[in-house]
Amino acid sequence: MEKLVINGGRKLFGKIDISGAKNAAVAILPAAVMASQGVSIIDNIPDIEDVQCIERIIESLNCKLIRGNNTVTIDSTTINNVFANTDDVRRMRASYYLIGALLGRFKEAHVDLPGGCAIGVRPIDQHIKGFEALGATVNIEHGVVTAKAERLVGANIFFDVVSVGATINVMLAATLAEGTTTLENVAKEPHVVDVANFMNSMGANIKGAGTDVIRITGVKELKGCNYSVIPDQIEAGTYMIATAACGGEVVVGNIIPKHMESISAKLIEMGVEVIENEDSLLIRSDRNLKGANIKTLPYPGFPTDVQQPMTTLLSVSRGRSIVNESVWESRFKFVDELKKMGASVKVEGRTAIIDGVSKLTGAVLKATDLRAGAAMIIAGLMAEGTTEVTCIDHVDRGYPHIEEKFKMLGADIRRIKTEDC
Ligand code: EPZ
């Protein structure tokens, strides 16, 4: 195991480049196995454990996969296995995209139920609703999702809840269904649009991704293509918030500023300077920030995946702030760790009531999930004294080279081996 040791209180200065989007990459890689001809070369792949995990799963299907420097080449023409049942499948959430991919191409899929961050119940009923609407029979027995169809036929599907996973998964299957599918009450996140653009590069016919209605006209087959993953909106938001928390001036580069609008707007409301350039944002903060209220919502609302870093920032911002976590029912567990540092936060169900304090003091913290780990690193960077964040394997799932990037900005942070977790 490893932990990060941070000597806090230093301002951040400099420029960092954001990596490819985790939640786009872990959907695009499974989608690539739908190609029955040609090879896909996918660029701007982030160097993170979740990507390595999904790559291992794809290889377990006897698919040829070659890793390069932030690039993956996939030749799925020889796949002969519709069973995804390795430990990796049960470890991560995005393995469920193999259901839509294999069902779409082979009309059959046997995929173990997914794992993922412990932030709530995380059902897949909407995925199943979509697959069944397309004509599949779906059963869950012994922890395995089995989906089969004689034929997949286009349908009109109105999701009961806005779900990134269900929107993407059903979109995948529908690309090779006969006829037209309309999806409504869909997720509009940048990574949903990125997956649709990738599928269209493979020869799919998807219109309206990023809007309230996605229309998919089924095609006969999909072919490998060249593609580059969009920058990670959540990684970028994390570094923006870290700069606001520590004070200083940082250029967050290689991003799409439009994707950051809800985060930029909230930081500006709190007194942070945010200057937009074509593919970067300059963040300037004197740490003297005003509290604010946050309600996490599907895109373009405030992203739930930066709620924990933002709650950490609000814990040292002036006055009372209220954070309402509308997406996940259990995403405040990390608050108990923040309290060890002197934060004043009261959690009532899906709401956190935060009274800003003048400073946090270093402590030994345990990362409970991916984004909580990032929040604790931010807390350590801005706290007085030394902080240790253990169980950082959670963080390595979604943040490439996080301590290296913070070191480039002047942070005193180092990774060391430990027995603790
Ligand atoms: C994706 O999870 C992301 N993960 C999550 O990011 C992110 O928090 C979430 O979208 C929301 O943006 C990946 O993309 C791999 P959902 P997903 O389906 O698809 C309910 C991170 O930190 N729901 O949009 O699992 C669900 O309970 C991770 O990178 C159903 O009720 O999320 C939740 O309340 C954490 N039935 C809401 O919808 C379903 O069938 C949104 O979930 C599916 C979802």
UniProtKB/TrEMBL annotation:
Cellular compartment(s): Cytoplasm
Binding sites annotated in the UniProt record for UDP-N-acetyl-alpha-D-glucosamine: R93, R122, P123, I124, D125, Q126, D305, V327
Active site (catalytic residues): C117 (proton donor)
Binding-site residues, phosphoenolpyruvate: K22, N23
InterPro entries from the UniProt entry: Enolpyruvate_Tfrase_dom (IPR001986), Enolpyruvate_Tfrase_sf (IPR036968), MurA_subfamily (IPR050068), RNA3'P_cycl/enolpyr_Trfase_a/b (IPR013792), UDP_GlcNAc_COvinyl_MurA (IPR005750)
Single GO term (MF): UDP-N-acetylglucosamine 1-carboxyvinyltransferase activity
Gene3D superfamilies: Enolpyruvate transferase domain
EC assignment: 2.5.1.7
Domain Enolpyruvate transferase as annotated: residue spans: 7-405
Chief place where the protein resides: cytoplasm
Involved pathway(s): Cell wall biogenesis; peptidoglycan biosynthesis
Domain of life: Bacteria
Keywords: Cell cycle, Cell division, Cell shape, Cell wall biogenesis/degradation, Cytoplasm, Peptidoglycan synthesis, Pyruvate, Transferase
Broad EC category: transferase
Function, as annotated: Cell wall formation. Adds enolpyruvyl to UDP-N-acetylglucosamine.
Descriptive protein name: UDP-N-acetylglucosamine 1-carboxyvinyltransferase
Organism of this sequence: Clostridium rhizosphaerae
Gene that this sequence comes from: murA
